[in-house]
């Protein structure tokens, strides 16, 4: 198998595996890097920030989708950075006391929407992506803010630092992968989008079914 095919196939396999895991995941799982406890030190805050977007399947799928879509624009890195800035703002406003009912469902909805865009292969304009990424980043940040709510300043700022670092790394990594190996392969990109949308759908089901 050629390197391009191998890289693309690995991304799709990972996404579909995550979708399968999401179907049985606890919706609150993304908020337990520190065993459910609020980080109390700088190191704990940093580790929590680095870990949340990785173990939280909805947040991981979102940033991967953002990277995939950003790959089609020359200012792709800036679009990923804009998402991260909006995410940090969402965290900060949650900690400041902002209340948004149904935020977790909204996060899953953005995952579905981003996946569908990739499936359709109609890459949005930069202006559209700025608005889309700003909303997705903000609502993801708001949801992630729950785990740092009530923390002292030192772990709070460390959390934001870790969060920004890992999100930028994943987003730029996904963008680079698409630019190098997948941009000319429409079917592979659509399958990636299907995997991302599948994660969102599975997470919606996981949140609704227990309450039924």
Question: Keywords, please?
Answer:
globular, 212 residues, mainly alpha
What's the arrangement of secondary structure elements?
Blueprint: H1 3-22, H2 42-55, H3 57-70, H4 76-96, H5 103-120, H6 126-144, H7 153-182, H8 186-208
Q: Give Rg in angstroms.
A: 16 Å
The run of helices and strands is HHHHHHHH
What is the number of helices?
A: 8
* Residue share in β-strands: under 5%
The residue-averaged pLDDT reads 82
Structural class: mainly alpha
What's the total count of β strands? 0
Q: Based on CA inertia axes, which overall geometry fits?
A: globular
In this structure, how is the largest beta sheet organized? none
What do you see in this structure?
By secondary structure, this protein is mainly α. It has one domain (49-206). Helices cover 75% and strands 0% of the residues. It contains eight helices and no strands. It is globular and about 45 Å long. The termini are far apart. The relative contact order is 0.23. Residues 16-30 have low confidence and may be disordered.
Question: How would you briefly describe this protein structure?
Answer:
This protein has 212 residues and is mainly α. It is 75% helix and 0% strand.
């Amino acid at each position: 198998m050629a390197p391009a095919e191998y890289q693309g196939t690995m991304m799709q396999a990972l996404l579909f595996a995550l979708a399968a895991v999401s179907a049985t995941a606890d919706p609150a799982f993304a908020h337990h890097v520190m065993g459910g406890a609020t980080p109390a030190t700088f190191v704990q805050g940093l580790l929590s920030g680095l870990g949340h977007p990785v173990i939280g399947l909805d947040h991981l799928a979102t940033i991967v989708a953002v990277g995939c879509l950003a790959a089609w624009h020359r200012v792709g890195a800036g679009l990923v950075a804009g998402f991260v800035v909006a995410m940090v703002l969402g965290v900060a406003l949650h900690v400041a006391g902002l209340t948004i009912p149904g935020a977790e469902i909204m996060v899953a909805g953005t995952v579905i929407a981003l996946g569908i865009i990739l499936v359709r292969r109609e890459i949005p304009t930069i202006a559209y992506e700025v608005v889309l990424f700003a909303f997705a980043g903000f609502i993801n940040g708001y949801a992630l803010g729950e785990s740092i709510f009530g923390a002292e300043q030192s772990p709070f700022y460390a959390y934001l630092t870790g969060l920004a670092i890992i999100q930028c790394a994943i987003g730029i990594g996904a963008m680079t992968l698409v630019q190098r190996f997948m941009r000319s392969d429409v079917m592979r990109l659509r399958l990636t989008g299907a995997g991302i949308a599948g994660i969102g759908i599975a997470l919606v089901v996981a949140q609704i079914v227990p309450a039924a």
